[in-house]
Amino acid sequence: MSVFYIILAILLFGLMVGIHEGGHFAAAKACGVKVEEFSLGMGPAIWKKRKGETLYALRCIPFGGYCMMTGEDEAVDDPRAFTSQPAWKRIIILFAGAFMNFVLGFVIVLILYGSSAYAYRGTQIVSFQDGCPYQGEAGLQVGDRFLKIDGQRIYLQSDITDFLQQGDGVYDIVVRRDGRRVTLKDFPMTRIEYPGQSRKLYGFNLGYEEATPLTTLRYSWNTTMEFGRWVWMGLRELVHGRVSVEDMSGPVGIVDYMAETGEQAQSLSDGLYNVFYFTAFITVNLAIMNLLPIPALDGGRIFLLLVSQVIEAVTHKKLDPKYEGYIHAAGMVLLLGLMAFVMFHDIWRIFTT
Question: Of 83, 111, 301, 315, which has the maximum CB count within 10 A?
């Protein structure tokens, strides 16, 4: 595997972590919270500098990082401590890391599309195969733009075929027709044979959209939202037991996949495009995973913060933040154990395949 792509993947992973922690840092500063240390990487520091009240550090292990705020897990006698702030400020600070990861993913996709796209595969019907039984007054028409299939939002052209293939042949389809939404309830549709075609088709043909600044912006947003849906679908598969923990990847596995994605491309430009596209997906993945209501993650902190606010409203007693700290500490131990297992599995897979 090319050393170039490995180094690039490590740097990009560091960028994702840095953007995440930078979101916490910027939000904390904006909310007047004292930040004691902003660190990229883990382990011993290879560079550090204090500027004002904050110590900035670059550490030797290029995975992870943190934004250490005063009174993050315990009440302290400091009006600028994290726990001294109103709930809405704390939620903004906690949410900011995932928000910046999502923004990073969107910006990467926007740059990739803006620099290479001439046209986008659209979701609007431009014609039908001769003899298609699904067109007509009570069916699909030329000019229809797919909006939803069985309640699933259509972001990209590939979504249409994917959701039709996942169905049972009868669908609830929502299209935009002449500026209004039209719903085709319990609409039957299967692939059939058409003259001159080598494979079965649904019978409608979708067009392309010119890559104007507005369409580039829209398709970049839709692609980023599609990434988010892939993450939720993956989580659903994990909960239902259709995938296992062994299918998960940690930092080592992610870097390996990123490097492999670039290495398999036909040219350097294609390799860079693939690596950055995969990076956009991973950073959106990190945004969503960090907002899950799991102790030690940002989502877990937000969830427990909201729960504590409800308890305080009912009992009129302020909860001691140290108890929340105990919960997050326990969650961190379990999370580190899972990360260790995943990392071992990633390393084992790299050396045995």
Answer: 301
